[in-house]
Amino acid sequence: MEFISTRSADGKCFTASEAILKGLAPDGGLFIPREMPSLPADFSLSGGLWKAMYQAIAPFFEGDESEGDLEEICRSAFDFPLPFFRNGGRDTMELFYGPTAAFKDFGARFLAFTMEKLLKKRGESLTILVATSGDTGGAVASAFHGRENLSVKVLFPKGRVAERQRLQLTGWDGNVSSYEVDGTFDDCQKMVKDAFMDPELSGLSSANSINLGRLLPQMAYYVYASFLYKAIYGEEPVFIIPSGNVGNSTGAFWAKAMGAPIRKIVLAVNANRTIPDYLETGKYEPRQSIETLANAMDVGAPSNMERLFAMFPDWESFRSNVSSYSVSDDEIREMIRREWEENGHIICPHTACGEKVRRDHYADDCHTVVVATAHPAKFDTIVEPLIGRSVPIPSTLYEIMHKPSKAREIGTDYHQLFA
Ligand SMILES: *Cc1c(COP(=O)(O)O)cnc(C)c1O
Question: Which of 31, 129, 325, 342 lies 20 to 30 Å (CA to CA) from residue 404?
């Protein structure tokens, strides 16, 4: 099994393990399989979630140095449930039962466990640098906490992340350190970039959402969910996916390309309209992001688009495979309120975008699954006033939020990270 860069189809080939340790291809492109593998002919749901995900990921590791570890990695990384909120074929798939209550736990944990095995075998160690303004940092910190041969430095801008998000970044000890930077998110990103460029520093790596190790689990849960859906309803589902950098939805497209029973994939975006505009005009115009209530989707230049363009290179093929609709902040508020009133179901602002797209564009008999990307308790300040009650916090989130804060306050000079 070989991987190539999205930017050089005839270029050098890499194994899955190499791609995971590198993150980005040497030419700046993203890793994609040279040829998309098919699902194993004997794929089965009978072993439960982690086993199904393992079967879906295994073809990507054929002949790889991590092949023999893969089953154990999946068993350890995917040790939480993926339930459906069932509503007669208008279901919601809840990806937020991991330690930090968002779908990013799947990818971050798989990446951390895979890197740990590889580094131990090679007798090497790495320091992961993450600049975060929200969800990513928490998922990465949690996933890498306690992993051997790895340490993590999380940077976030002082006074610019939500209180609950800050608590998820600062309660760690051991191999995870957090730094509250007296600056902006852009300053944090620049510090990370500068550190990578510094020839005196070595053994640094990243855990970006474009890493192949984060994408593969996001493919695998769509394989599991689509087979499960088909077993329950006898139909192939339409997945409606709240999207920003389109990593989650790229996973769904890979699952479909491998043969998973998926009828259609629909991207629900917030007021950042880059993809719906491209579908309408045929001109792809990445732009600055704008702030919305679904802030983990505030992306104007989606980083995984290179992978979607590798699958659907021209406007015609893109349009016949990808649908996307934009949802405003007012519509997000309305959906959170109505979904609670009509179905007794509390959803986060991101999931609300998916729900709005379902209600506007898909009839009741359409067999749709809205993907719930985060637990609503993470967005209490938005959700609670709309539904007039408090949202119970999942226990894992509660625990990390009640640990003493250990963040170090620093300026914008990256040398302070290594002092
Ligand atoms: C990251 C995130 C998204 C967007 O996912 P992409 O893979 O970037 O499209 C949506 N919702 C939540 C809650 C997220 O954390």
Answer: 129
Q: In angstroms, rounded to a whole number, what is the distance separating the alpha carbons of residues 149 and 2?
A: 26
Taking the centre of ligand 1 as the mean of its atom positions, its distance from the CA of residue 350, in whole angstroms, is 8
What's the gap in Å between 47 CA and the centre of ligand 1?
Answer: 28
Query: From CA 386, how far away is CA 403, in angstroms rounded?
Result: 29
Ligand 1 site, residue 247, Cβ cutoff 6 A: yes
DSSP reduced 3-state for 292: coil
Q: Is 243 in the pocket of ligand 1 (CB under 6 A)?
A: yes
Domain span holding position 363: 77-103+213-394
Give domain status of residue 48, yes or no. no
Instruction: Indicate whether 297 belongs to any domain.
Output: yes
pLDDT at residue 9 is higher than 80 = no
Ligand 1 atom 14, closest CA: 296
Asked if residue 157 has its Cβ within 6 Å of ligand 1, the reply is no
The count of domains in the chain is 1
Q: Token match 């609950």: residue?
A: 164
pLDDT at 186 exceeding the cut of 90: no
Whole-model pTM: value is 0.96
The CATH number for 251's domain is 3.40.50.1100
In angstroms, the Cα distances linking 364 to 43, 99, 236, 239, 393 are: 30, 33, 15, 14, 31
Q: Per the domain annotation, does 254 fall within a domain? A: yes
């179901």: which residue's tokens? 345
Reported as a single tens digit per residue, the pLDDT across 353-403 is 999 999 999 999 999 999 999 999 999 999 999 999 999 999 988 988 889
Q: Which of 418, 377, 419 is nearest to 400 (CA)?
A: 377
Is residue 379 a part of any domain in this protein? yes
The answer to whether 186 touches 288, Cβ cutoff 8 Å, is no
Task: Tell whether ligand 1 has an atom less than 6 A from the beta carbon of residue 246.
Answer: yes
